[in-house]
Amino acid sequence: MGAAAAESSGDDEGPSRQEMFETISNERRRMVVHSLQRDGATDLRTLSRQVAAWENDTEPSAVSAQQRRRVYNALQQSHLPKMDDNAVVDYDHDRGTVEPTDSLEELTVFLEIVPEKEISWGTYYTLLGSVCLALCSAVALGVYPFVLFGMAPTALACSLLLLGSGLVHRYRSERLSLGTGDLPSEV
């Protein structure tokens, strides 16, 4: 673990919330996280070739020496030392190896930040539950025009809404998770 992380997070508690956000604030670092979660420990050369491939929308074997070198230098000089300091990876500069730490898994929680113009899934499900409860209550109490729908069709509609929402939520969560699938969520 890097010295800065040991100082800022107390004993050996892992990276702070700020360090986690700092780590995932950069697209290249998110690509590193994705690669390490997907493939595990690697060497800097292989990692830089993979990140360059994602950045250039090509296969690793088709990455030019210049593209790989540009990513290699940025990872070696900036990103990996920062990630090591934040205890997200173990980066051995001398050997050129990069290994995930236990803290790497915690980063997925920080990626579920709600975009600026959207509501959180928790708020969405609370609103959906409230609407379904109101509809079922209106039908049960005989409120016109809701009484015309009947309880069974209303309950079925609410169930289908919940199921559909759950499927969309699962799809979006898996798509945005680093370390799953072939490509990071940005690519």
Automatic annotation (TrEMBL):
Chain segments annotated as coiled-coil in the UniProt record:
none
**InterPro entries documented for this protein:** DUF7344 (IPR055768)
Does this entry carry the keyword Cell membrane? Answer: no
Question: Which keywords appear in this protein's UniProt record, sorted alphabetically?
Answer: Membrane, Transmembrane, Transmembrane helix
Q: Which segments carry the region annotation Disordered? A: 1-20
Q: Does the keyword Transmembrane helix apply?
A: yes
Membrane-crossing ranges are 124-144, 150-168
Name this polypeptide is given: DUF7344 domain-containing protein
